[in-house]
Design a protein that fits this description.
The protein has 261 residues and is an alpha/beta fold. Helix content is 41%, strand content 22%. Helix 7 packs parallel to helix 8.
């Protein structure tokens, strides 16, 4: 039996109105060559029953239950179980466009990279588009953008599995595991790209898990860690920007709402 090229990873710890559509947006992809791994973590039996009913008739799906709620742990757990060459991220309140995997596969055939994202539509609880995230597409522009903030939208990204193993997986940040991985990857020779198409809908809603000022402090610590290991002007700039964001975070959280995990 030929192994799938892509392994979709979804970690979920509670039921919510958006979960069904999130799961179906994966199962209904126009390109069916993938496996779908779900970790139900630190959850009740009702969530497991809901997931079992959604995936009962699809042999591509494997459901696991863990007792640890941390996202980084569960992503590493699923990455260990995966057989695909690429790990496709997904969250339980977002939506994939139905051609997401097909477009990403074509992009990788044209330019193999270690981390590949796409442009993203930010939507509200009802699904209405709030704004567009037109992220930089080229590697050099993405690395420069990391200093300022989001350069690759984590739940919209795919990661080459062997590269993630080389980076020793998700290894830092309780609230900022994606920033930790992107920074280590950029400094460790990883190649980035974003597809200039809207392949993902990232939902903002009142019930979502939210960050705190602690997330900004974690980002400061991540940049400082790397700066102390290998001093450079790039890391000094990233550290200073992170400090400025942390210092102004009470006002940023008040104006924009707390950032989604």
């Amino acid at each position: 039996m030929q192994l799938p090229t892509f392994s979709v990873l979804l970690c979920v710890h509670r039921d919510q109105p958006y979960l069904k559509n999130a799961v179906l947006s994966v199962l209904h992809q126009s390109d069916p060559d993938f496996e779908f791994l779900i970790a139900a973590n630190a959850c009740d039996d009702a969530l497991v029953s809901t997931l079992e009913s959604l995936i009962a008739s699809d042999s591509r799906v494997s459901l696991y239950r863990t007792s640890i709620g941390q996202l980084a742990f569960n992503l590493n757990f699923l990455a260990d179980k995966a057989v695909g060459d690429y790990l496709v991220r997904m969250d339980g309140d977002d939506l994939c466009e139905l051609n997401r995997i097909a477009v990403l596969r074509e992009a990788l055939q044209q330019e193999p990279v270690d981390i590949l994202g796409s442009w993203v539509l930010v939507v509200d609880a009802s699904g209405s588009v709030l704004r567009e995230m037109r992220l930089p597409c080229k590697h050099s522009a993405i690395v420069r953008r990391l200093v300022l903030g989001t350069a690759v939208c984590h739940p919209a990204a795919i990661i080459r599995r062997q590269f993630l193993l080389k980076m020793r997986g998700y290894s830092g940040g309780v609230l900022t595991e994606d920033t930790d991985l992107w920074l280590r990857s950029a400094l460790g020779g990883g190649r980035f790209a974003n597809v200039p198409q809207f392949l993902f809908r990232y939902r903002l809603h009142a019930e979502q898990a939210s960050g705190t000022r602690s997330a900004y402090a974690e980002v400061v610590a991540l940049w400082l860690r790397e700066l102390l290991k290998q001093p450079s002007l790039y890391l000094v700039l990233g550290f200073l920007v992170a400090c400025a964001k942390w210092a102004s975070s009470p006002f940023m959280l008040l104006l924009r709402g707390r950032p989604k995990r």
